[in-house]
Write a structure and sequence with these properties.
With 422 residues, the chain is α/β, with parallel strands linked by helices. The chain has three domains: 3-108 and 250-332, FAD/NAD(P)-binding domain (3-Layer(bba) Sandwich), CATH 3.50.50.60; 112-247, FAD/NAD(P)-binding domain (3-Layer(bba) Sandwich), CATH 3.50.50; 345-415, no CATH class. 32% of the residues lie in helices and 23% in strands. The protein has helices at 16-25, 56-67, 126-134, 152-162, 176-184, 186-189, 191-203, 254-258, 293-307, 311-315, 318-334, 359-363, 368-375, 387-395, 411-414, and strands spanning 3-12, 32-35, 71-73, 77-81, 85-90, 93-104, 108-110, 123-124, 143-149, 166-172, 209-211, 214-219, 226-230, 235-239, 242-247, 249-251, 263-264, 267-268, 281-283, 350-352, 357-358.
Length: 422
């Protein structure tokens, strides 16, 4: 028998949305657990904890968590759920978390669009290189190209430069007109974002920032040595040590799918209290629509208060949530990946890194299910989290189902678990 722990409120995901949800809920009940698979809280945005590079908002919420009665379980990964009981993989083994109300704050991951050389050493996701740098990865003097799509490019480039990197280019695939339209709508919908952008821009003084520009090839003998860029009409090579590249974010929807939450247009459907289509299950942050930290903080607060019946406190955040929703829509429309990115991959370009399946091989398949059955696409360690979004963009494929365990787990741990009857 597995150890079973019981809580009134369980929060899955220790990023900004999950932290605020837990802090809000614990004001009305001391029976709140916050589950995070990483070594520390903060998610991708606040990874590294509340150290010297953390911003003021992050430090405030870390302090609130530390001073609260929230039980924090890091290195604890939810691998399945049955009848309001979470199966959680911890360093000590599998445990069961029983709950009355559940708040999903599962965050998002980067979208990678394959191009020749994208699997070379020293080609990173934008967030991945940023996290490594914050954790002490040596960046001083390293030549870095930051490319892809979204406001995160500017923020990461500014921080890498602050850590001593030589940022040789920031390349945004969307056009200048869309970026101008995006910036013009910020004062009404997200004024703080405009100020943040201006601050990051000031830190990047002298760094080339190009719109309508994207990578077409990474090359090198044993690791990255240069990146070929294009503006759609001409190409040129840039020598560099690192390429940080990602084309936006896609939500982590595996657990909402497993719970049978209603999902429309790759977003979990919620009402004004952040309640999903499943009773007593709430969802916040990027799974409800990519919107950034401020949106996650707002939704987390609403969900935390709503889950414990504090509707008056939740209602106070509704007008701010409407502004955040408008910002999310503006963000999505402004930074949609351009159609030309579908032509970057060559037949021998790798699609599924785990199973070494090329784009050319996958093109012969009728869909995700067939590619998975015949070529094991999506059956490696990442369980399709990298190649799934790429296949959706390239081929229009949708992943038809999600099955537990949601993440790889040791067989010796599974041997201690007796599955519930059907």
């Amino acid at each position: 028998m597995l150890e079973r722990l019981e809580y009134e409120v369980a929060v899955v995901g220790g990023g900004p949305g999950g932290m605020t949800a837990a802090c809000s809920a614990v004001q009305s009940t001391s029976s709140v657990v916050l589950l995070e698979s990483a070594l520390w809280l903060g998610g991708q945005v606040w990874s590294g904890g509340d150290g010297p590079h953390a911003d003021r908002t992050a430090k405030k919420w870390f302090k609130r968590i530390q001073q609260s009665d929230v039980e924090v379980m890091t290195q604890s990964t939810v691998i399945g759920i049955h009848d309001r009981i979470l199966q959680v993989d911890t360093p000590e083994g599998l445990v069961e978390i029983a709950f009355s109300r559940l708040i999903l704050a599962t965050g998002a991951r980067e979208i990678f669009i394959p191009f020749p050389g994208w699997t070379l050493p020293h080609v990173f996701g934008v967030g991945a290189l940023h996290n490594l740098a914050k954790q002490g990865w040596p960046m001083r003097g390293k030549r870095v190209v930051v490319a892809g799509s979204g406001p995160l490019l500017i923020a990461v480039a500014a921080h890498l430069r602050q850590l001593g990197a030589t940022v040789v280019l920031v390349a945004e695939q969307t056009g200048l007109s869309k970026m101008v339209q995006f910036a013009a709508q910020l004062p009404l919908n997200a004024p703080s974002k405009l100020m943040q952008g201006a601050a990051f821009g000031a830190r990047l003084a002298g760094v080339p920032i190009r719109t309508h520009c994207w990578p077409v090839k990474a090359s090198g003998t044993e690791k990255l040595e240069r990146v070929r860029m294009t503006n759609g009409s001409s190409e040129w090579d840039i020598p560099c040590d690192y390429l940080a590249c990602a084309f936006g974010l896609t939500a982590n929807l595996e657990l909402p799918y497993l719970l049978s939450c209603r999902i429309e247009e790759e977003r979990v459907s919620t009402d004004s209290s952040m309640l999903t289509s499943i009773p007593k299950v709430y969802c916040v942050g990027e799974p409800t629509g990519i919107g950034g930290v401020d949106s996650a903080l707002t939704e987390g607060t609403i969900a935390g208060f709503s889950a414990v019946g504090q509707t008056r406190e939740a209602n106070r955040m509704r007008s701010k949530k409407r502004r955040m929703d408008r910002f999310g829509e503006i963000l999505r429309k402004s930074y949609e990946p351009r159609a030309e990115l579908r032509t970057l991959a060559q037949p021998d370009t790798i699609l599924c890194r785990c199973e070494d399946v090329s784009v050319g091989q996958a093109r012969n398949d009728a869909g995700w299910r067939e590619a998975k059955f015949y070529r094991h696409v999506g059956m490696g360690a990442c369980q399709g989290r990298t190649c799934g979004s790429a296949a959706r963009f390239l081929f229009g494929w949708e992943q038809p189902s999600v099955r537990p365990p949601l993440f790889p787990v040791e067989l010796k741990k599974l041997a201690t678990y007796t599955a519930p009857p059907n």
